[in-house]
Amino acid sequence: MNEKNVKASSKFLSLVLRHRPEIIGLELDSNGWADVQELIAKCQSEGRSLSREELDEIVALNDKKRFAYNESGTHIRASQGHSIEVELNLAASEPPEYLYHGTVGAFVPAIQQQGLLKMQRQHVHLSKDKETAIKVGGRRGVPVVLVVRSGHMHKDGFTFCLSDNGVWLTDHVPAKYIQHGV
């Protein structure tokens, strides 16, 4: 599968496994898992060519590790970023002292007032390093990196979870814990 097809198929899988499984008639379980054979069959019935080998390649090569198989390899799910209600069963974890959030300048005034909100997703997404936050913010324009005092938040009783692909998740970051980064 060439890089262009991998990227297109990965975007489609993100849509189906994170936001709209119903567009191909797929049902996720309460933890966001889909049966691999059913996913492949439903994709093919919608005119999207997808084999198990191609799915394996997408899971292995996705630079953000957006997808994961269960231990037996019979089910697949998105690692995080859902706008539909799923329970990822992630354990609460103590975050590092600082985490980072990439955005663009147009959103900064609202963030300074309201903090970071999960919006249509289930969680606010935070990065462990500035480089990742720069990439995230750069998808929509010139990136602005916000530094989140996550260690202080945790001490104040906020809960954090670490997704399978290394993204830190929390429900809300109040403005008082945010400072401008790079």
Summarize the structure.
This protein is of the alpha+beta class and 182 residues long.
What does this structure look like?
It is built from 6 helices and 11 strands. With 182 residues, it is of the alpha+beta class. The strands form 4 sheets. The chain has a 3-stranded antiparallel sheet. The N and C termini lie far apart (37 Å). It comes from Filimonas lacunae. Keywords: NAD, Transferase. Belongs to the KptA/TPT1 family.
Low-confidence stretches: none
Largest β sheet strand count, sense and barrel closure: 3 strands, antiparallel
- Give, in order, the helices and strands: HEHHEEEHEEHEHEEEE
Number of domain modules: 2
Task: Give the CA-based shape.
Answer: globular
The first-level CATH class name of the largest domain: Alpha Beta
Task: Give the CATH topology of the largest domain.
Answer: ADP-ribosylation fold
N→C terminal distance: 37 Å
Number of strands: 11
Strand order of the largest sheet: 1-3-2
Residues in helices, as a percent range: 25-40%
Integer average pLDDT: 90
Radius of gyration: 17 Å
From the helix content, strand content and strand pairing, which structural class follows? alpha+beta
- The second-level CATH architecture of the largest domain is Alpha-Beta Barrel
- Total number of helical segments? 6
Strand content: 15-25%
